[in-house]
Fold this protein.
Amino acid sequence: MATTGPDLTSKRSGGAIITAANLEQVTQPTETATEPEPPSNLPPPAARPAGPAARFDWGPLLQSRERRWWTVALTATLLISALGLGLLYADDSNNQATIRNLVTQNESLTGRNQILQDQLNTTNANLTATLGELATTKAALEHPHLTIWNVPQQLKGPTWYLAGGIPDTFTYHLHATATGPMSVSILTLEQWVKANTCVDPGGGSTNYCMHHSGAVIGWLNQRSVDYDFHLAEGCADYIAVFTSAGNVTVRPNISVTYNPASSATGECAK
């Protein structure tokens, strides 16, 4: 703002208006006084006393950096540990899968082994049965068994008889039944001659003489006879004779087994 000056109204003019020139002169501010320059011959400022230079405190900065490095190291350690755990978990999962696969294969092999074992047991059982049959067949071939008399025949009183030779090299299986009492004797050929001599003159009946003129073994008045005779296995000298005091039917079931003796037997060994 313009500074306040003396009243610009001219007393003589009696309230006339100030012209622009006069206003310019009035409103132009006055120049302010400048500060005087300091004299050039002033002494220089006093030097600051010498002392220890100011040092920067690096402790907080180093501690901050150390914390950051520890944080980075800890984070890296955690990441590496997590990665290691992940790898261990994956490896363990693979191992578990492998173990399960091996267990499954083992169970499959165990089942197959059991099946093979059952088949082997069956085969062994069949082989044992076959060997048994083979042994039986071999024995049968080595010692054939033959039936030589199985037809029922009658004895019509004390003068009748039934006789049959006992083959050499065989075991003689004497099995016979009758509808009534019968007498059976095994005779040597010499005893057979003596029995016939007893009958011929009429001194005795056939039923008596065949069993009282000597015999190797005999059964009197029996309805059943069951005996295995072995003396003919090495001797051809025996006859079996059947008689009865009455009328009976004899039902024989006589067989022989080939069983040659290594040396003479019975009457032939004397």
Q: What stands out?
A: Residues 124 and 130 are 9 Å apart (CA to CA). Strands lie at 145-149, 153-156, 161-166, 170-188, 217-229, 238-243, 247-252, 254-258. The mean pLDDT is 82.
